[in-house]
Amino acid sequence: MLPKPPPREGSLGFLYLPPYRVQGISVAGEATSVMVPELDVVFDVGTCPRAALAMKYCAITHGHMDHIGGLAYYCSQRRFQGMGDANIVCDARIEPDIHGMMRGFQALERQKTPYNVIPLEPGGEIEIKNNYYLRGFETEHTSPSFGWTIVEKRSKLREEYHGLPQEKLTELKERGVEITKWLEIPLVAFTGDTLPGPHLIRDDVRKAHIVIAECTFFDHGHQKRAKVGQHIHIDDLAEWSKFLEAEHLVIVHVSRRTNMNDARRRLFEVLPEEIAQKTHLLMDFKTNRERYERQLEESGAQV
Hints:
Elements: E1 13-17, E2 20-27, E3 31-36, E4 41-43, E5 57-59, H1 65-68, H2 71-80, E6 86-91, H3 95-109, E7 115-120, E8 125-129, E9 132-138, E10 146-157, H4 166-174, E11 180-190, H5 203-206, E12 210-214, H6 223-229, H7 234-241, E13 248-252, H8 260-270, H9 273-276, E14 279-281, H10 285-299
């Protein structure tokens, strides 16, 4: 009897949520690596798909192997392929451990791979594009953990100066008067693995255009398992969703034991209908492919 060939590697999950793509892989306990190419960020590198190499910034949520196992490869391949040094953004508490991991690989390879680590305290941020900022916030998991938001900051004329001629505005500015104010537009939030809590109802999370959220447990009776592992259960998601103002909610970190049809059915059972309609499962290949084909058809493009 002939042996079976090895299982085929799965393709990346893909969603086009204008104006952003959300793509990658996220399977609980195996690997999470989720990219937003338009913003040059990959959240976690439990594995390193080729597409992740093009991301200039890697935002690490926590140090579990399924979220960080591909980090050294990401750094090495970016350098090898002439893409520049990797920029690893992380919770300051795990910075020494990331350096320790990288030293181990460098000792094994007998060569040094340059990389940059940018440690942040809760609420800290870095500018990743002109007026676009990546910000970290503390979450609650079994190891030190961060969630991430990407916000755009825009300068806007203060209301009291509306209608003034340009020469008057210039005069006020030259006198040192602050005639503008900064507005923040939350674009993308990535929760990472976490228990529910106040950190998930921050304005820059709940008001983000796209919220990418872990939801590991969908079965009835698994609430206790979710709490032990400090993950989100779908019942938690239903409660939290009442606070969300997102245009899109993307679910990641679903267990391989969970059938996607069952997960989709459960979403419509427990979430308010208006939330369920804009909720997507990143690894639901069939549904997402059909959705993208409709987008192509509506745009007049060819499949």
